[in-house]
Design a protein that fits this description.
two-stranded antiparallel ribbon, 12 strands, about 15% strand, alpha/beta, globular
Amino acid sequence: MELVFRPRRLRRHATLRKMVRETVLRREDFIYPMFVAPGQGVRQPVDAMPGVCRLSVDQLLKEAREIRDLGLSAVLLFGLPLTKDDTGSEAASPKGTVQRAVRRLKKEVPELLVITDVCLCAYTSHGHCGLIHQGEVDNDASLEALAQVALSHAEAGADMVAPSDMMDGRVGAIRETLDERGFEMVPIMSYAVKYASSFYGPFREAAESAPAFGDRRAYQMDPANAREALREAALDVEEGADILMVKPAMPYLDIITQLAGEFDLPLAAYQVSGEYSMIKAAAQLGWLDETAVMLESLTAIKRAGADLILTYFAKQAAALLK
């Protein structure tokens, strides 16, 4: 008698499927991005991102307690300033929105790991991620400014900093500054492979960070390039990154898989605003099952090789995984 293997044998029952499942989502996998705004009592919905709000520090604390109670472990903070200028000076201010939020979070919700985004785009009047010289982003002049932003976050109590600007050498500059000031134990989660993606539109509304002129293709990666991703990640490893990140996630699953096979560091992937908003919009129109598609997309990101997933779905997913 010819022996025939029938893969469907292990798919017939939900219990069997769960027992042999290769990729399993956990609440600990998720990092929840949050937008911190100036003021008091601010809870301003982001139109393009249903369920996401800009929050003043007092409202952020309320949401942070909810996040903790859902079993989530970490948040990523983006700040909106009171004022913007050419150099984004408020980004490094001890009185800035992120710095104030970090101090309050570490005091009142100490169980949460607090990660801070390090960039200048939301703080500069021109909306670019570095300093402008003669109409262009000046890479090397921007490094010290970014390092000072990271230092101000560490001094406020941030558990981890996450530079997203894509300036060459910024991981090394931040690592050197943190080490010199006694913060050698503060890890860096580097946006190592950040593409110049069209999926960022809703985020730019939320963070009020759209560039006033030009675009960011001169410093963010060309979506057509894959080998370059390995070079970018290798440079960040050499400069002292502790965690690597790929951004966006779903359109770049191949890149996540390549980095997971090449490097030993933990790997994060950012399911960005456009990915989130597309699922939300299609679900609102009745075209997709939001819960099913959300979980399938997150599973795909983890299956590709991500250890950590930054996602605006973190609360919804955590509630289902409890």
